[in-house]
Structures are given as C-alpha cells and as structure tokens.
Amino acid sequence: MPKWREDNKPIGYIIGVTPGFSQFETGDLRLVYMGMARKITKAARLGFDFAQIDFEELGEAFEPEIVNQIKQIKKAQNIEIGIHAPVNIDLTLAYAFEWRYSHDQLRICAKIAGESEAKYILFHTSSHPRPNITTAFLGRREPYGKLFGPDGSNLGVWIIKNGMKDWFMAKFIRVLFSAMGAAGDPAVIDYFESMESFSDAKRYAESVYNKGDAAWAEETMRITVRLEELEKIRRIRGFTKEEEREYESLRKELERKRTRSYLIEITALVNGISTQEAERCINVARYTMNYDFDSIFDFWVRQGAEGEEYVAYLTVAEYMYKTNDKIWKAVAKINQSPYFLAREASKKAGELSTKEIENLKKIIASVAGKYIEGHLFAKSEQYGIKEGDKIYSIYDYCKKKNVRIYIETAMPERGVEGELRILSALDHINFCKAVDDGKIINYCIDFEHLLTNLIDPIEEAKRLLKEQPGDGRYISCLHTNAPRPIIGAHAPIEVMSNDILILYKWLHTLRKAGMKDSYIICEMGSFGVRQSAIAFRKIVEELEKDTPPENLPREFYGIDKDFEARQRAAIMEHALDPIKNLLVMPEDKWSAIGRRAVERGKAREWEEEKYR
After folding, report:
1. Which residues contact 350 (CB under 8 A, 6 or more apart)?
2. What average pLDDT does the structure give for the chain?
3. Going by C-beta distance under 8 Å and a sequence separation of 6 or more, which residues neighbour residue 416?
C-alpha cells in the first residue's frame, strides 16, 4: 500500500498512472470517462496504486458536485489522486492577458485540488520559446502587447515600485519614443542605452550643452556688439579702410560661429571633451529639453506598459542581478549585468562561445522562475484564493490544504524543441531550492519531455549526480513511458524489452543522486498500458535493493522458471515441424501412434498435431 509523510511527500516509490484524455477514447467510452471523477474509475482498473488526473478542459472543474463525486469515487475505489493542470498553462509569460489567463487556470486547479483532498497539483513551467533578449541566437520578432511584472502588476508600476524607473528610462528610451509614436533619434537612443541612469545622463548632457551654449552665446554676442558699433560709425561718417576690413572680418567670423559645427567645437573646448562627445550631448540635450520624458513614462504606464516581451525580461533580469535575488543566485549564478551580456551578444552573433550562450539561457531561465514565483505568491483579491474571510496566495492555499506543488519541464511544440524558457532538471531543482527549499515545491522529471527537448535524460541524471549530489531529493515525482524520441508518444512498457533496462538505468542514477521517495507515473497514451504496471513493479523491486543495472537478474525481464517451462513446452510441441509433410507414407496408417489414434477416434486431434 502507498504511504505518505505528513506533508504528503511519498514514502518510497508510489506507482501511478494517468488514465488519459476521454476525447481519445473510442465510441461510447468517450462519454463513459468524460470528466475528472469518471477518469478516476478508469485509472483504478489499470493495476496501479495511484492516479494522476489530467485536466482536458477547464470546465471540468465546474461540473456540478464534482468535488463530492471525486471524494466518493476515491473512497469507493480506494485510490488517491494528484491533479495535472491544463497543458496550455505557461506561467513564464510577461504579456498581461496571458499572465492573467494562466494564473486563473492555476488558481482554479489549486482550489479543486484542495477541496477534493488531492495529494498534489502539477503544472508545466514553460511551453513557449525564449523571448528575444538578444539577436545572437534567438532573433524572433515579438508581438507588441501590454506587459506585466512577475507579480501580475502593470510592468511600469512594478518598475517604479522596485526602484528601476531611472535605469529603465535610460536603457529602454526607445520604448518611450514608441509610446509617442516616434521612431527616435538613433544617436540619442544609443547615448542613453550606454548609461545606467536616465537622470544622470540627462543632467550630464544638459550640463555640457548649457556650458557650451553659454560660451557660444557670449562669443557671438561679443562679435554682434562690435558689428553694431561699426554699423553706427558707418552711418555717421563711413568706414576707414581698416574699419572696412574689421567689419568684413567680423561679419564672416559671426557667420562661421553661428553654425552648428562651431557650437560643437566650442562646447568641446569649454568642457574638455571630444567633438564627438560634444555633438552627442547637444543632440541629447535638445531632446530632453523639448520632451518631458517623465511625463512620457507616466503616459506609457497609463496605457498599459506596451512593448515586446524581451523588455520585461531584461528589466526583471537586471533587477534580480542588482538585488542579488535568491532565484538569480540559484539558477543564473552570473555576476554580470544581464543587459550588458545580452547587448554584447547581439554584436557577436555567430561567434559566441558555449559559455556565453549558456549564460543567456540562464538569464532567461532565472526570469522565468521569477514569473513562476510571482504566480505562486500573488495574493491580492484579484489573484488570490478566497476561503471564508481570508484570501490566500496559491502557495499558501496549497500549504494550508497540504497539497504539494510540482513543476515539470513541458513537452515542446514542433519547431521549438530545446528552446523553452526553463528546461534542464538542474534549473528546475535550483528553483525549488531557492523558493522554499523543497518544502512544498518539488520537481517532476519527465523522460519523454526531456528527450523531446533535446536533453538526454540519463546524461542529465548523471550531471545531477556529479554536480549536485543529493539534490535528487527535490525530485519526488517522475513521469515516464517507454523511451521514445517522438513528441507525445506515451508508449507502454513491455517487461521483456530493452526499454525496461533503459528506464532502470535512468531511475537508478536518479536514486543515487537522492531521489528515493517519489511517485513513478505512467502517462497513458492511445496505446494503453499493457505490461507497464508489471514493469514498474519490477523496476521498483530492484531499485529498493540498489541493484546495479549490469547485475539485474533474469527475473527482472520476466524470465523465471514458469516462463522457461512454457517456452520449453512450446518448443517441444513444434520440434518436428521441420519434417512436416516430408514422410512418404501417411502417418495415420503406417505409424504406430497414428494408427492407434484413428482406431480410438482421435484422427482429428492427430491431424491438428496435438500429439506429434
């Protein structure tokens, strides 16, 4: 019988199954197993000790009396359940609608899990490809949309609340130009993007410009005053030759000094900077003096903080880096500005090292984790779960109801294999460690999902064992089928197969890495389960003995004494098949056994080869 700790973490290995989607059943069975409660009845008949029920439609949570149905069937079938959230949930998205929609789905899932006393809820971490923080290895064009911070607030409000406004206005001034409907001056954009503070950059540019402008005004005024004096002389008595020469010289000098090039020259001179720097500051100052960018930022916030998703991701990444966020320390482990790394990577497309590419992926994985954390801990009236007079975050509600939370690497859509935002087992484990040290949140490792994301599951287990030994304890749920490298294969496991050995090697490595208490869930597809339950029990039996893969007994593959006896009987029954129809004389007349068979009325059985 399966056993659990007080916090509902499995004790030892609990073998479970998903009964699949009712929509993939045939004929009347589609109706018979439609709905969460009815799927439990199917799971209970498949030879496993536990059932994971998958949401097909969110409406399943609103079926009348669904909680009572689930409880009654659990009791009648003597089986416990976990609940898999809808597969279209993606808690790593920064777009406002997608953030809210995914959050609502998770909240509904958590609520029904708590009310029906499920052991856990499980959701995929990311099903969308990485946002375009750099053109170096991503380069997709992203849609423009209203953006949220990790906590589900307007990104602009989140930026202000977390002290990132000054940095954001410098690094993403192009977003503010876009809010005005203007393309923006590339030189001005480049200037601010190279600065860490908008206010400091603005102050410096205006200071340089004002100092140069004052010197320019003073110089042109000096010449203008002298020219006016000479004009008076000319009207009174005319010019001498020397005065004529002076007048012409001053007029030409004034004409030259009223040019932009002279303004740049004198600005550089009085500020002790290069002419290029002076020109840049003049360009910037004229924009900052003509446009109130603080008001433009406020307008952008009021309009819903519109932009491409990478804007939110890089802003949140920089905040995590600057504040030494716990998820950043656990997942990214990078001591450099993510904005700088992404910007530099864009210049080196095609020339990036493996380490540089890995850093960019880690930046995205960290921010993805921050957004997941935001969903779990959001507890406003809009985002929380109300029970009685109190409002709980999803995390606090699950803690109160003793429902564990599992995060899982998602199965990719075709065309984005290996491109999801958070992928590796180690990144997921480190997220769990950072958020609550595995108290409620654990990782569910899925063989097929890793494989179809271009990750070798066995090598990933070995990497966990080598780099973070013991951290396998943060894995307490495992999804597996026969190892097939095709998205959505969900093939059953045969006992006498190479598949069972491959899976044993994987689980044995995970056990050595610390995964000793876990669900082992067979995710049933359209092929059914066949011998999967038997195969899993054999795997668990040897795992608990710590049997090395190379020392697995013959019985592990179903080769026991009964099997050998059946095989020997089958062989002996057909031992004479090679000489069938080769005898010249009919056996029923000329052979002793054949004649006796005819005499006793057993000719038919003889012909059917029962006694040959």
Report:
1. none
2. 92
3. 128, 129
Sign of CA dihedral 175, 177, 180, 184: negative
Between 241-257 and 198-236, two packed helices, what is the crossing angle to 10 degrees?
A: 160
Length of the chain as a residue count: 612
pLDDT score, position 611: 46
Unique residue bearing structure tokens 């000096």:
222
Give per-residue pLDDT as tens, 120-151.
999 999 999 999 998 866 667 789 999 999 99
Joined tokens for residue 286: 């004229």
Q: Can you give the residue ranges of every domain in the chain?
A: 3-140+364-557, 155-302, 574-607
Residue 298 identity (one-letter amino acid): D
Residue with tokens 């079926």: 63
CB 509 within 8 A of CB 461: yes
Q: How many other CB atoms are there within 10 angstroms of residue 531's CB atom? A: 17
Instruction: For residues 37-66, give the mean pLDDT.
Output: 95
- Is 511 in contact with 543 (CB distance < 8 Å)? yes
pLDDT tens track for 391-424? 999 999 999 999 999 999 999 988 899 999 999 9
DSSP classification of residue 345: H
Cβ atoms of 556 and 562 within 8 Å: the answer is no
Tokens of 313: 């991701």
CB 416 within 8 A of CB 129: yes
The number of angstroms, rounded, from the C-alpha of 429 to the middle of its chain's C-alpha atoms is: 13
φ, ψ for residue 146 (rounded to 5)?
-75, 140
Q: Three-state DSSP class for 391?
A: strand
Topology of domain 3-140+364-557, CATH: TIM Barrel (3.20.20)
Closest CA to 412 of 486, 480, 361, 483: 486
CA 487 to chain centre: 17
Q: Which of 104, 16, 110 is nearest to 404 (CA)?
A: 110
Secondary structure of residue 256 in the 3-state scheme: helix
Q: Measured between alpha carbons, how far is 301 from 146 in angstroms, rounded to an integer? A: 10
Q: How far is CA 47 from CA 16, 478, 480, 519, 522, in A?
A: 9, 18, 16, 15, 11
Q: Name the CA radius of gyration of the chain, rounded.
A: 37
SS (HEC) of 264-327: HHHHHHHHCCCHHHHHHHHHHHHHHHHCCHHHHHHHHHHCCCEECHHHHHHHHHHHHHHHCCHH
Please, what's the b/e burial string for 154-193 (b: 16 or more CB within 10 A of its CB; e: otherwise)? bbbebbbebebbbbbbbbbbbbbbbbeeeebeeebbebbe
